[in-house]
Amino acid sequence: MSITSIMIVGVGGQGTLLASRILGNTLIGAGYDVKVSEVHGMSQRGGSVTTYVRFGEKVWSPIIEKGGADIILSFELLEALRALPYLKRDGQIIVNAQQIDPMPVITGAAEYPKGIEEALRERAKLTAVDALVLAREAGSIKAVNVVLIGLLARNTSIPREQWEETLRTTVPPKFLDINMKAFELGYQYEE
What we know:
Elements: E1 4-11, H1 16-29, E2 33-40, E3 48-56, E4 69-74, H2 77-83, E5 87-96, H3 103-106, H4 116-123, E6 125-129, H5 131-138, H6 144-154, H7 160-170, H8 176-188
Parallel strand pairs: 1-4, 4-5, 5-6
Antiparallel strand pairs: 1-3, 2-3
Helix pairs in contact: 1-6, 1-7, 2-4, 5-6, 5-8, 6-8
């Protein structure tokens, strides 16, 4: 069995770490050997956060080298662009089409790049979704991460029930209903 490598990228505060826990726990529940590695930038100040998730019959290392990611799950457009060198040729990107200005843009020292979706589409199979709108529909803008997990789940062979069971055991009970709705909206999303 081959190893599948997924990079989860976003900005601090977007729930990338919860998303990686949901993904990792689901994969373990499905019987895979899983390795996860988290890389925190200035995450508490809105900086980049990256998680590597690798799974298969036997995985020796959690690290994804450049050109090694099968899938990039990105919570923000610019973060997807930054992660692009890690994607395999003909890899897949699932991206929240939201733009979060980094500090140089906020201070006026730089402009947010234009044409990011087009650049991503040239290099990968791209699914871009306004996950913020779907999260709001689910009941909380903080559920963007679970909307994206729903989209990712639909692109795997892991049964939906396994994902839902992981949500029930990973998400705090008071947030479960919102997150189940967010997962459903992501899972059912059509471009």
